[in-house]
Write a structure and sequence with these properties.
The protein is globular. With 331 residues, the protein is mainly α. The chain is built from 14 helices and no strands.
């Protein structure tokens, strides 16, 4: 319990630091969301005077004359009350309504990619460590290193121009527009078909994890208990999956959780390239419209997702590693 409380305290501090940056960074950007909204009203023929400007500020809860520190504490309060404000670029929708359009698709992409990445990196890392020095080892590790160091934009563009442009896969959307599905299976198949390239792009970004698992496995295979197990005649399967892989997995879980933030950032870019209707597309419209409430909402949601993933990883390590449980009991 002490270990869990200590980790919760750490993530609480990280959360406060993140939401503070989340509030101030958009306000350091040039431009003003109220002025941009007023400009759009003016271009559409609306009557603009001082009363109109004050009315817009009141409507969106944005006061240019209010001290930042007051706005900051109002922002903190709104986070916990669930009142994240109105979206400038999607009015009259609220921030939560605007985000809900893309959040589900982004979670689907990230969840699918993370699951595939974890399984792929773990299995390949185990196999190349067991076959260390072989052609299979050299080929997989070299390929993983090269692909993992290519920027997300280039990976996504390459897949888009090679596989999407040639018609093998769709170039955009999460489902086929205006399509009528005969049953749920047809819908799932269409969703998986559209998600293939974005998910593949995110998985490629994570292939560096093979090297981490390989290194951990090699260290474990050199331990005395493995030599003893081999001398006693234990099967390769028992040694690899029953002992070495489990111990080698501990640092990989931590590293993998830390990479989620990097993968989430890459996922938002990949969504834009594939015209996927996730948070990346919503974020782009928020940046273009200086939509501070929506930008803050998306960054806040990203922060919550990353911190939650790291906390889940900490809990997983607690169950995997008996030494942490013992240290926790000792206090």
């Amino acid at each position: 319990m002490k270990y869990v409380m200590k980790r919760l305290g750490f993530y609480l501090i990280a959360f406060i630091a993140a939401i503070t940056l989340n509030f101030f960074l958009p306000r350091l950007m040039p431009g003003d969301p109220v002025q941009m909204y007023i400009s759009e009203l003016y271009q559409s023929g609306g009557r603009i005077d001082e009363a109109t400007i004050r009315a817009v500020e009141q409507l969106f809860g944005y006061n240019t004359g209010e001290p930042l520190i007051f706005s900051y504490f109002k922002y903190i309060g709104s986070i916990f009350t669930g009142n994240w404000g109105l979206s400038f670029s999607n009015y009259p929708q609220t921030v939560l309504q605007a985000m809900s359009r893309g959040l589900g698709w982004t979670l689907f992409l990230m969840g699918s990619a993370l699951t595939i990445s974890f399984i792929l990196n773990t299995v390949l890392g185990i196999l190349v460590a067991w076959k260390r020095g072989s052609k299979f080892d050299k080929g997989v590790t070299l390929t993983g290193q090269v692909l993992a160091n290519i920027p997300a934009v280039i990976v996504a563009l390459f897949l888009s121009y090679t596989l999407a442009s040639t018609g093998f896969f769709p170039r955009g959307y999460a489902v086929t527009p205006l399509m009528t599905y005969a049953n749920t299976f047809e819908y799932i198949k269409d969703v998986a078909y559209h998600a293939f390239l974005p998910v593949t792009s995110i998985v490629i970004l994570s292939l560096g994890g093979i090297m981490g698992m390989r290194a951990n496995m090699i260290n474990q295979l050199g331990e005395d208990y493995i030599t003893l197990g081999t001398a006693k005649g234990l099967s390769e399967r028992k040694i690899i999956f029953g002992y070495s892989a489990r111990n080698a997995l501990l640092p990989v879980v931590t590293t993998f959780a830390m990479q989620i933030g990097f993968m989430l950032g890459g996922a938002l870019i990949i969504e834009l390239i594939f015209n996927y209707p996730g948070l990346g597309k919503v974020m782009l419209s928020a940046i273009n419209g200086r939509d501070y409430p929506l930008m803050q909402g998306i960054l806040l949601m990203s922060t919550i997702l990353m911190l939650s993933a790291n906390f889940i990883a900490d809990i997983a390590i607690l169950f995997l590693d008996p030494r942490i449980r013992t240290e926790g009991k000792r206090g």
